[in-house]
């Protein structure tokens, strides 16, 4: 086989001349071709049939034309469709060695066959690569909420290159935005029904399996769109609770928009109820797999619950959804000073035995198997965090009235202490502590941080012993009910006793006016934990996160519902996983990942070796060398402070290198030892262990 060697400079000059000749003589539509020059791909446009040999394509006028194998695209001139070959590899026919390019002259049939195979494979790979780029661009535009005008400008720029010539001109075509939005009038606004089955097919489309029964939690809540208008949404949302990979993925079932809430909630719920009835008690097909559908629970706050279930609101005498206790008005507020009650049953609700509790008949009773007392748990987020905890902190201690209001000097001291703890809050917490002057604007997560973690520290020595012990009773009970201890009956029973003691003490420490609807419902929430598990299993947190994202889809004040429907339809073509903010990949318990190799050489313990690392990521949390993430409790109950991560000599597995605390005692002992719920007071670090 004859070979010739030319310099890169001469090769480029020859190629340039060859291109000029080809451009003059080409009779068909130009296609994209790649040459390799010092590992840089240059573009050559030729028109030729993909089955033609290289010797037929190259003009004989060029001095080295017979020895240059050109890669080209096939064009179907009838349909004017391009097959993208952006990443064709020609290393097998053109070899670059140092500063010289060695070009092999081959015309054998075996070489032509090899060339055709390589070309076909590269066309397929190139097509897949371009498709992936389109998907990534689609995902990017959704994730960063790129408006259509900006996206159209980007598409116009990209279409100027042959690589992206097939991109649509219009962003609505690219995002597959629906042309028609089907809306139904629900006085005084409009409603769109996405559908239960349609949404289930969408969220399961990337899953390898589908559970034999799909248990869905349903949430309905009002969402004001702005402070300057009465425009509001009432979405019907769902979440699959019995399938771990999707148990944080919220999907829309229907959305109402209007300047007032629906005047008739039965009309608002009609599409949802009709579809739910059709899905019950029969096999349904989700992503080609047979399964069954079940509504596990309905989640509302107190206001939405009253509207949807057609019962008295929280200011009514017979407003409790769990018992028949009647309240009484004290200084303009409905209170429940009596702690004795008779529990409501599902049959009581269905038959409306308590006429004072109902204001109408909800069509939710038509859904088979759905119980409107036991299947409607109390919401921990609204009841305890935005209800009881806010009542104590904001309405009593910070902005309340004497004698329970704390002095301004004490409040400032508490604020200073809270802010000083900011650097010690682990990265898993979404919000850091801030001044109590902002307490009226605290979010539910901030009240949770105070109730479960910071309150026992900050309030110690601030409140008198009676009020402090009273707060710790609530803290201890809720700490049990949010933990895995909620799966054990004896702990739930104990938490129920603590909550009962807390409610009774509210009347003694504060007054009967403190016994509002939320305080009363603390007596019932333990039963919901017995049925469903820890409080976070049936909290509204995932839905609230979705509502926040939903609000951001509105780009102008007119045609609000069509906007939202179109944006959600664009998202559907990807997955709602890209829309749910909480969606992060959860590793299995056997997986972990080491990051950020530490450059400094810390002291290694015996039987350990490097390299050393700064972070160790586990399924639900991570450990680092930062001050807020380096303290942890081992399975043997030893508490350590981490100084490095390395490897164990024999097993080669990653290990934690740190010092343990020698003195570990309870932070408080009333109503029980704090160590039982994982709270310790530690001191005196030992050497490496």
Description:
It is a single chain. Among the domains are: 3-130, no CATH class; 380-538, no CATH class; 593-688, no CATH class. 34% of the residues lie in helices and 20% in strands. The chain contains 18 helices and 24 strands. Strands 8, 9, 10, 11, 12, 13, 14 and 15 form an eight-stranded mixed β-sheet that branches. Strands 18, 19, 20, 21, 22, 23 and 24 form a seven-stranded antiparallel β-sheet that branches. Strand 21 (631-633) and strand 22 (639-648) form a beta hairpin. The protein starts with a strand and ends with a strand. It comes from Macrosiphum euphorbiae. This is Transposase domain-containing protein.
Précis, in short:
This protein is 34% helix and 20% strand.
The average pLDDT is 82
Round the Cα radius of gyration to an integer and report it.
34 Å
Number of strand elements: 24
| Sheet with the most strands, sense and barrel status | 8 strands, mixed
Helix/strand class: alpha+beta
Using the alpha-carbon principal axes, give the shape. globular
Number of helical runs? Answer: 18
Which key terms come to mind for this protein?
20% strand; 18 helices; alpha+beta; seven-stranded antiparallel β-sheet; eight-stranded mixed β-sheet; 24 strands; Transposase domain-containing protein; 689 residues
